[in-house]
Write a structure and sequence with these properties.
By secondary structure, this protein is an alpha+beta fold. The protein is about 30% helix and about 15% strand. The protein is built from 4 helices and 5 strands, in the order H-E-E-H-E-E-E-H-H. It has helices spanning about 15-30, 45-50, 120-125, 125-140; strands at about 35, 40, 85-90, 95-100, 105. The strands form 2 sheets. It has a 3-stranded antiparallel β-sheet with strand order 3-4-5, covered by helices on one side. It has a two-stranded antiparallel sheet with strand order 1-2. It is globular.
């Protein structure tokens, strides 16, 4: 997805508004609370949102996190570092930030087509396999 210009708003068939919000929020947090040269969040808030985890789940306080205790329930590939944070939406789109490697992985999809109940995207672990392929390619370098 191309970067949005300040004040720009796009609606695309098959993509949720949540992706646009997530893109802006992820870009802001990955830049320490700034977006396009303007501060929206403190560095401390971004650190809290991207590193702290809930005491009762794998989720972070601002984003989802890898499940290092039970990898079979993790929304991420096995090779991601524990510092990764992101979001997976209902339609199957996801965005994951890896601050250790300077990587943002975005996967756009519409898993609700032709209906919302056949979730092959999750059952076949498509997002996780693509993410794993990215990390395997990075190891080869």
């Amino acid at each position: 997805m191309s970067r949005l210009l300040p004040g720009e708003f796009r609606v695309m068939r098959g993509f949720s508004l949540m992706l646009v919000k997530s893109d802006v929020f992820i870009r802001c947090c990955s830049d320490g609370g700034e977006l396009d040269g303007r501060r929206y969040l403190s560095k401390e808030t971004c650190a809290l949102f991207t590193t702290e985890k809930s005491k009762i789940s794998r989720r972070g306080l601002g984003f989802d996190k890898p499940d290092v205790v039970n990898e079979s329930k993790s929304p991420c590939a096995a090779s991601v570092p524990v510092t990764v944070y992101g979001h997976t939406g209902f339609t199957g789109t996801c965005a994951w930030v890896d601050p250790d490697n300077g990587l943002i992985y975005v996967f756009l999809s519409n898993r609700t087509y032709p209906d919302a109940w056949v979730n092959k995207l999750s059952k076949l672990e498509i997002r996780e396999k693509i993410q794993e392929t990215i990390y395997e390619a990075m190891k080869e370098k």
